[in-house]
Amino acid sequence: MDEQGEWLSITDAAARLTAAGDAVDRSTLSRYLKQHGEALPLRAAGKSNLVEFGALQQHRQENIRIRSMPAEVRPAPGRAVAAPAPGRFVGSQADGAARKVQADAEMREMDLSLRRKELVPAIEVDRAGRSAVALMQSAYEQALESEASSASLKYGWDERTLRIVLKQLVRKGLEAFNRELLKSIDTMTRSEEGTAGQPD
To answer: With contact defined as beta carbons under 8 Å apart, do 29 and 13 qualify?
Structure first.
């Protein structure tokens, strides 16, 4: 066991981590140390157990399941803690197993959301979006005919010229709408394909 480094009680280590922006209480830290005991050995000192603070801090920083507090919540720089020794911790089987368990849970949650119809695959959104654009275009063309006729009678404008102007207006508006919609759908589809292509 490494005798170097700063060995602290679990209570003191929890307080130092919290001061450094990693909010954790004594009870949670004690469970964390039991879970990661193979990477973070404890040393008995009377009734207390001590943990090497540098290794603990580095381990928690490298643990992807732990999020530190935002900068505005962190204490002033005067209360900073010593930097951990670089390259001390390379990971453990428990960390890998924890990441796999979390990934499996997220996949089950996504499957459940899909069955409950809370999620829609991007390909279905793509299909529905293209169909909606085609229906909207058809509806505009039908409305354009009757509106051109009504406007020419009401204002005395040439109906043929009015139809040409209205068709150009509709075409430009639909092109802009279609372009933006397809961009959004393409982004979603690429994102979904990228997620599906990642190895388990």
So the answer is: yes
180 domain-assigned: yes
Can you tell me the distance from the alpha carbon of 39 to that of 95, in angstroms, rounded to the nearest whole number? 10
**Residue 174 within any structural domain of the chain:** yes
Same domain, 78 and 16: yes
pTM of this prediction? 0.35
Which DSSP category does 89 fall into? -
pLDDT in tens, 111-128: 888 788 787 777 787 788
Is 70 a residue whose pLDDT tops 70?
no
**Structural domain boundaries enclosing 62:** 7-92
Q: Where are the alpha helices (DSSP H) in 2-121?
A: 10-19, 26-35, 53-62, 93-115
Nearest in space to 177 (alpha carbons), one of 137, 124, 147:
137
Number of domains present in the structure of the chain: 2
What CA–CA distances, in Å, run from 100 to 127, 169, 200? Answer: 34, 54, 9
CA atoms within 13 A on the CB side of 55: 23
154 Cα distance to chain centroid: 55
Q: Has residue 100 been placed in a domain?
A: no
In a domain, 147, yes or no: yes
